[in-house]
Amino acid sequence: MTGIDESPERAHRFSGDTDVGLPNPARLYDYWLGGSANFAVDRELGDHIAESEPRIANMARENRSLLRRMVTHCCRQGVDQFLDLGSGVPTIGNVHEIAHRHAPDSRVVYVDNEPVAVSHSELLLEGVDRATILRGDLTDPAEVLNSPITRGMLDLNRPVAVSLLCVLQYFPDTDRLRETVASYRAGLAPGSYIAISHLTTDDGDVNASGVAERIRSSRADHQAYPRDLEEVLSLFEGTRLVEPGVRYAQHWHHGEIAGPTEPSGIYAGLAQVPE
Ligand SMILES: C[S@@+](CC[C@H](N)C(=O)[O-])C[C@H]1O[C@@H](n2cnc3c(N)ncnc32)[C@H](O)[C@@H]1O
Fold first, then answer.
1. Rounded to the nearest whole angstrom, what is the distance from the C-alpha of residue 234 to the centroid of ligand 1?
2. Lower CB count within 10 Å: N or C terminus of the chain?
3. How far is the CA of 135 from the centre of ligand 1 (A)?
């Protein structure tokens, strides 16, 4: 797989003010998914992590399949507004593409703080009326929910599906994460959905601790903090989990016939904001 041409000019155009010398989760994930929005440092760490867990690319693919199933489920429940937090570099099956297939009037706000992810999203969304990207920090729910970009696209008085897929694992403090999720919940209309997927060491088929350890011992601009079932369940406090509850990503299905799956090492759940 090749990445972004690393000439300084082109690197700057795509990276804005990010430090391209440090591996970053958006670009690492893009690399594992076969994208080209990544730099040599990302690819080096990506390969180093893959030595400890060779299924890492499958794990990323399972997470993208999960995203498709969760968005589809929300669409079938009549939800037509989406807020994708930590949306990443656009890849196959982005939220607006899935949602627009079900309801062309659906509206989508992507949020990411990584400049390469944001600039690639801007390019993809040129000419798309009902989807936009906010460069912002998802750990500041007030800023995200009150941003004119969010307010211009979404009506928060109606249900919104908020996704936090494979992103909360980058934050060490579970209590603060619970507060963050609770603040989003408080800002959403009843009937809204919150989707979470999260790296875990509970899944014995996957070496998630090896993945976290290789990130920890690298120069990456982030760390990974896998969580156990109890911690992941606690993030859903104050919401109502929908069937099938919290499962490994590859087992989170809702009525569809499951195809062949790979171990993911990722917990997944979708919950509804009650009245
Ligand atoms: C592993 S990727 C997941 C992408 C996508 N959610 C998915 O599941 O396919 C994690 C993303 O979260 C973003 N991210 C990390 N910390 C963030 C923060 N504080 N605010 C916004 N985005 C963040 C990263 O830049 C990256 O794009």
1. 21
2. C
3. 11
